[in-house]
Design goal:
mainly beta, globular, about 45% strand, eight-stranded antiparallel beta barrel, single chain, two-stranded antiparallel sheet
């Protein structure tokens, strides 16, 4: 009887240490610390077609977004490129962002007009994945970003 109790206790401890609370994904967490960083664009899938951003051979530049703690999101796109050779300039789209659960509303900077709604499906220290829905056209795309 003592052996059975011992085995049951060990099994219980092992199962507790592997609980779902240990998952590194913070998708539904309102803590913004995982979101607030620089994210490099990996891919965008729209109407079943996946596009990958250019990584510039000459300077390493690529599209990225900065989610700042001041609730500003700066989307930076390589301004011009010929093949994989790019200028040192970026074009900037600036938004205010509000996160509620796994939903982020992007509003045109300085206005109360929503541009896109992002529904986060994965958020870890290295991956940000969301479905972006345009507020005007209602078209959606799945976008994947990486922190490195």
């Amino acid at each position: 009887m003592k052996k059975i109790f011992y085995i049951f206790s060990i099994t219980f401890i092992i199962l507790q240490s592997c609980s779902s609370g240990d998952n590194s994904s913070e998708t539904n967490n309102d803590n913004n610390s995982l979101l607030e960083r620089r994210w490099y664009k990996v891919s965008e899938t729209y109407q079943g077609i996946t596009n990958y951003p250019v990584v510039c051979n000459n300077n390493g530049h690529r599209d990225y977004v900065d989610f700042l703690s001041s609730n500003i999101a700066n989307f930076n796109y390589v301004a011009s490129s010929t093949g994989n050779n790019c200028s040192d300039q970026y074009s900037l789209e600036k938004f205010n962002w509000i996160k509620n659960g796994n939903t982020i509303n992007l509003k045109f900077f300085g206005t109360n007009v929503t541009s896109e709604t992002l529904v986060i499906t994965e958020l870890t220290s290295t991956t940000l994945k969301f479905t972006a829905t345009n507020a005007t056209t209602n078209n959606s795309a799945v976008r994947v970003y990486s922190s490195n």
